[in-house]
Amino acid sequence: MHTKLTIPERLKDLRVSEKRMSLQELSDATGIPSSTLGNYEKDKNIDMSLGNLITLANFYNISTDYLLCRTELRKHKNQSVSDLHLNDDAVQILTDEKYNPRLLSELLTHENFWKFMTDLEIYIDSFNDKGIQIASAFLDVMRCKLTELGADSTDALATVFDNSHIEAEQYYMNILSDDLSI
C-alpha cells in the first residue's frame, strides 16, 4: 500500500530529486527567501502565500493542485471520460479504487508497456473468435502478477513485462487447446 506525500515532502522532492537544487539556489531562482522555503519543507501546517504558491508551481512547471498534493497529475487537464475511450466497466473499476492507482500509473507509463500491448493485440487478433476469452485470460494473468507484486515497484514491473508474455502465451495456448482440441 502506498502513502500519500505531504506538502512539505512534495516540495522537498521537487527541489532535491528533480531539480537537484539547494534551498539557496531555489531562493535565487524564485525570489522566495531560503528561510521561507525551508519552513515550507519542514512545517506540516504550511501558511504559504498565494504568490509563493503560484511562483513555485510556475517554477516547477506543475499545477498548484499537484503542489498542494490534491492530485497526482502534474498538469491537470479536465478531460471527459468519452475522450479517453473508456467503457462503463473501466470507469467503474477506476472509481472503485480497489487497486493501487500508483501501480497502475507505473504500469501504463513503463517504457515497455507499448510492446506488451502490441504483443497482446497480436494474440487477440490472431484468434478472432477467442479474442474476448484471451483478453480475459490476459487480465487473469496480470491480476495474479500484480497481486504478487503487492507494493509499488518499478523493478518488479520490469519483471512482469519481461516474463508475462511467456506465461500469458502458455495460458492462452492451454485455453485454445482445451476449446479447439489443438
What would you note in describing this structure?
It is a single chain. The longest helix has 27 residues. α8 runs antiparallel to α9 and α9 runs antiparallel to α10. Helix content is 67%, strand content 0%. The two termini are 42 Å apart. It is an all-alpha fold. The model has no long low-confidence stretch (mean pLDDT 76).
Would you spell out the secondary-structure blueprint of this structure?
Blueprint lengths: L6 H12 L4 H8 L3 H9 L7 H11 L3 H4 L20 H9 L4 H9 L3 H14 L4 H19 L4 H27 L2
Helix pairs in contact: 2-3, 8-9, 8-10, 9-10
The biggest sheet amounts to: none
How helical, in percent, are the residues? 55-70%
Query: Averaged pLDDT, please?
Result: 76
Q: What class would the helix/strand composition place it in?
A: mainly alpha
Uncertain regions spanning at least 5 consecutive residues: none
Strand/helix succession: HHHHHHHHHH
Overall 3D shape: elongated
Give the percentage of residues in beta strands: under 5%
Q: If you compute it from the alpha carbons, what radius of gyration comes out, rounded to the nearest whole angstrom?
A: 22 Å
Jot down its keywords.
single chain; 182 residues; mainly alpha; 10 helices; 0% strand
Briefly characterize the structure.
The protein is mostly helical and 182 residues long. It has ten helices and no strands.
